[in-house]
Amino acid sequence: MKPYDLVVIGGGLQGLSTAFWSAREGARVLVLERDRIGRHASGFSAGGVRTLGRALPEVPLALDALDLWTQLDKLIGDDCGFVASGQVKLAETPDDMRILEQRVALLRAHGFEHEVLHDGPSIRALVPGADPSVAGGLVAARDGYAEPYRTTRAFGRAAMKAGADIREGWAVVGADHVKNLWKLRLSDGSDVRTRAVVNAAGAWGRRTARLFGDEFPLGFNALMMMLTEALPPFITQVAGATSRPLSFKQTAQGHVMIGGGPKGIADLHTGRVRLDIARLAASARTARDLFPAIRHAAIVHAWAGIEAIMPDEIPVIGRSSRAPDLVYLCGFSGHGFELAPLTGRIAADLAAERDMTHPIAAFSPDRFAQPSRSATHAMPQPAG
Amino acid sequence: MSALRRHYTRIIVCTEDTAPARDGDVAIVALNTIWHAEPGAVWISEPDGIVELTCDHVDLPETALRLRQAIGLVQDTTEAPIAERIDPFGLASLLDSPATPERDAQLLAQGQEIGPVAFLRAIPVARLAAYGTGQPPPRPRQEEP
Questions:
Q1: Is the Cβ of A263 closer than 8 Å to some Cβ of chain B?
Q2: How many CB atoms lie within 10 A of CB B39?
Q3: Which chain B residues touch A225 with a CB distance below 8 Å?
Q4: Per-residue confidence of chain A (384 residues) as pLDDT tens digits?
Q5: In angstroms, what separates the C-alpha of B9 from chain A's closest C-alpha?
Q6: Does the first or last residue of chain A, that is N or C, have fewer Cβ atoms within 10 Å of its Cβ?
Q7: Residue A173 in contact with residue A187, Cβ under 8 Å?
Q8: Above 0.90 for ipTM, yes or no?
């Protein structure tokens, strides 16, 4: 059988976006998903389309990705439910406000102006559902939210339409590089050959990297979310907090989705997750403190998805320095949803050895080989 | 953390008309007080708030399969109805639709797909928020060896 140009390992949003962009360029592409499409982080993301509060190296990518979100209908035939509602990061205290002021100053120093500081009265006028004690906030007006599973499926459909082959229930269990081709051994005993490989295996990215002789400290967690009963409309933006993890939005049906980073317990072997009720309760406290309207709302559902988490909470994007024709696109640490339309394109370009114009050095798979690697941003990013 | 937590050797989940009782080793809890459950722990809603009961062993009543699956204590081998996988956003509209056996089956299938759990019963945000105080430290990253 003729070798593939590219095999993408992982059928989440990142992998499917890579497959889409690669197939669109005429490559012969195969996606291997060990479980089902969008089964983990991609399907259970909070769906935040967020440039707000990004770690500095992510900001240029997030801004370019946001432009793609506005064009998805033309690009992949589905707008993925994207609503440019704006995102706000609320300051609960004067200390929070100082953090936000420093954040704006940092962004301005690097030439970014998409985050705008609002004082208390201004933010309360903009977000009337917020608690009156809110001290101010940061607003990214072009941000918004979309539907995660719909987005994942839409990229999958677009990739197939562009010619990509997607197989569910196929795990890669070994890899050998022979005569400039990768021979990937599959769980059913068969194998496929390909010129290039993209590791978009999410929380399983480290396990997959080891098949190719690579190693980096990719961990994982189960990111939890809650959904309330339907309430009368009281907020249009996606809201977060400054010093506490929160992603908060009201759906068109009135339900409120509360997420942003509280972590449950994941089992990579089984793919199962368990909720951490104490941390779920802390998330409920944050939401209750900032939005009085939900205090008596009933929580009707909670869930979690397994997500890869890097020590510095920014992704791994780049070519392997050890294995030829191997590209990494994983470790998004709960923040990959918004980036995916662009980062899939970047991975496709890397795999095809096309020129790279986006700044991705900070995401190198080798960065943890250097001593004293530390977090790149002081303000916690909400997941999703 | 002021959340109430008690450990028992054995928790017996009873049908709703059974009086709850507890001694040092065994707790009998009524099914209709369970808010959420996982292997080794159940969270029950009491007048004073949510209480976590941990245990070495749980005995379940012979209730309907769907209840046993819903509370997540039993990995039942019986095939559950398979619903088409939907977005968590889509779940919202499902929750709004009239409660019929078909809708419940679809919800349960979704719950199984998602992994953790539709709560057995809805609970107010304020009541969940009262389970503990402050901001617990972030759960550490899990890592494979």
A1: yes
A2: 13
A3: 88
A4: 899 999 999 999 999 999 999 999 999 999 999 987 887 788 778 889 999 999 999 999 999 999 999 999 999 999 999 999 999 999 999 999 999 999 999 999 999 999 999 999 999 999 999 999 999 999 999 999 998 888 998 999 999 999 999 998 899 999 999 999 999 999 999 999 999 999 999 999 999 999 999 999 999 999 998 888 889 999 999 999 999 999 999 987 788 999 988 899 898 888 878 888 899 999 999 999 999 999 999 887 787 888 999 999 999 999 999 999 999 999 999 999 999 999 999 999 999 999 999 999 999 999 998 655 544 555 667 776
A5: 21
A6: N
A7: yes
A8: no
8 Å CB contact between A257 and A297: no
Residue indicated by tokens 């900032």: A290
Angle formed at CA B143 by CA A190 and CA B56, multiple of 5 degrees: 100
- A105-117: b (≥16 Cβ within 10 Å) or e: ebbeeeebebbeb
Count contacts between A and B (CB, < 8 Å).
Answer: 158
d(Cα A183, Cα A174) in Å, to the nearest integer? 8
Domains and CATH numbers, chain A: 4-66+148-218+312-369 (3.50.50.60)
DSSP letters for B68-128: HHHTT-----SPPPPPPP--HHHHHHHHHS---HHHHHHHHHHHHHHSS---SS-EEHHHH
